[in-house]
Amino acid sequence: MTELDEARAELGRLQGVEKTLFKQLLEIRAAIKTQESKIDELVKKGPPAIDRLPVELLARIIFQSLPNYDDHCVSVEFRLVNRRSNLSTVSRLWRNVMLNTPMIWRDVVLDGSPLTVAFLETQLIRSGNVPLNVFIIDTFYKPTLVWLNVLVSAANRWQCLYIHELSLSNMDGILDALEGLKFPSLKDVNIYALKRNHTINPTFIPPQSLTVLSLTGDTTSWLSSGDIHLPLLEVLKLAVGHAQTVMDAIVSPKLLCFDYCAEYRDDHCISFGTGSKFSHVQEVTVDLRRDAGDADAFCEEFRGVRHVTLYEESMVVFFMPNDRDSDLESVPADHWTALESLTIHGGLVGLTEAFECLLRWLTKRQELGRPRLSVRISGRPNLPSDGVKLHELYNTLRTCCDLEMESVALHSTVRCSASNGSFWLDVLGVEPFVTNDILLDCYISNRCSMKTICT
User: Fold this and answer.
1) What is the mean pLDDT of the chain?
2) From residue 174, how far is each of 141, 148, 177, 201, 338 by CA, in Å?
3) Distance between CA atoms of residues 248 and 254, nearest Å
């Protein structure tokens, strides 16, 4: 056999192998399709995908879907009881998972909804030994004290206590009922709408465990006597008048964050004479009017602060000198020698008096050789800013700080023109590439909408 014959024989053999393999490939592909169809049928006959999740993961999903309390929550929206009831009717599995997950039952809400003592006792059982969050919200019903008597049996598990918007008689009754009780695990206390005649005895607050304290309302008679030592307190929020009584009374060596909003009454002013015992605080959020007190004393009290959040209306309080005709006059914010970042919430109408004061202060800091501040300006969606003025503000401020802007709504002078078959949109104060992108997005969106309608 010649070499040519051998090559032809080898080619024939390889072609035979190819046909065999191709036949096997077709058979395998057919088998794969059959198996896929079988799997699809089995999946359709089986339980829903969410029921095939591990029980721990399903419990976590259900827990995350429950309403969470925050400072902006109102009682109408906070219907946790209804939410839990609805979720438990999805399937038998969901109901079993919920009933056997104590974390789902940690939030106890007393908001005037029809509750029974038996229901609360059952919830305490279902919550096992997890810490409890107790919310007493907007209720004028006498049974509140009856419900409270059930809950105090688990006072050692109270982690958070929120008392909001109660009637005068109910507030008095609840605070009286809590006096003298021990809450060894209570870390977060939030009392909203204190009235002038509400007097809270220091024994009501657990000094050894509290880390967050928030008070809103009138604190004229907040403490009956003496100081209150809160060694673990990290966050203090006050939206009150006569805050001096609270500031004088509290001793908190670990306080990190202070949030203060002056109550808008002529007789509600804040002053400081505590000997700068809060100089270790790292973060301050403040909403202070021009006539709400001594801003210089306020800044000296928190002279060690690193991060400050202000509202635009409060800026002149901290950055305007007492002598407006002198650029060399010191301003209250000069006491913040360790400041690293400044956040400003406001309408951002441009270089207003407030921002001019800030600009002079930042420039003076720069001339003194101090580190550049990180300044973040946050707008308000319901208060749009003029594009031209905002552009001027941005270009001016960024020369003396590391500037960031977010959530800024714009309203601008818009000029439209059409020539040579082209449409032009000129938005004063906004770069051309921005308006081009806006037009392109609108065009694509409209085309998609029209296509959908036509088809």
Assistant:
1) 77
2) 12, 8, 5, 13, 43
3) 16
Residue 259: the pLDDT is 92
- pLDDT beyond 80 at 78: no
Q: Where do the H-state alpha helices sit in 351-386?
A: 353-367
94: its two tokens: 């969901």
Q: Write the CB contacts of 53 (distance below 8 Å, at least 6 apart in sequence).
A: 61
Read off the tokens for 44. 């359709």
Burial of 440 (0-12, 13-18, 19+ CB in 10 A): exposed
Helix boundaries (H) for 250-323: 295-301, 315-319
How confident is the model over 186-207, as a mean pLDDT? Answer: 69
Closest residue by Cα to residue 222 from 188, 246, 258: 246
Comparing 440 with 67, which gets the higher pLDDT?
A: 67
What proportions of the chain, in percent to the nearest 5, are helix, strand and coil? 40, 20, 40
Three-class secondary structure of residue 414 per DSSP: strand
Neighbouring C-beta atoms of residue 308, cutoff 10 Å: 21
Structure tokens at 296: 């210089």
Instruction: Assess whether pLDDT exceeds 90 at residue 305.
Output: yes
Task: Note the helical H segments in 46-89.
Answer: 55-65, 80-87
Place of tokens 């805050």: 243
Pairing of strands 158-164, 374-378: unpaired
- Looking at residue 116, what is its pLDDT? 82
Tell me the per-residue pLDDT of 163-179, one tens digit each, with 9 for 90 and over: 876 666 667 677 777 77
Higher pLDDT, 216 or 325: 216
Residue 102 to residues 123, 151, 276, Cα–Cα distance (Å): 9, 16, 44
Q: What proportion of the chain, given as a percentage, has pLDDT over 90?
A: 22
Contact 104, 66 (CB under 8 A): yes
| Residue 435, pLDDT score | 59
Please check whether residue 265 is in contact with residue 289, taking contact to mean a CB–CB distance below 8 angstroms: no
Alpha helices in 47-199 (DSSP H): 55-65, 80-87, 92-99, 117-126, 143-151, 168-178
In angstroms, the CA 302 to CA 256 distance is 11
Among 137, 149, 207, 198, CA closest to 178: 149
Q: Taking 90 as the threshold, does the pLDDT of residue 33 lie above it?
A: yes
Number of H helices and E strands in the chain, helices first, is: 13, 18
Q: Which is it for strands 341-345 and 410-411: parallel, antiparallel or unpaired?
A: unpaired
Nearest to 372 by CA among 341, 394, 344, 351: 341
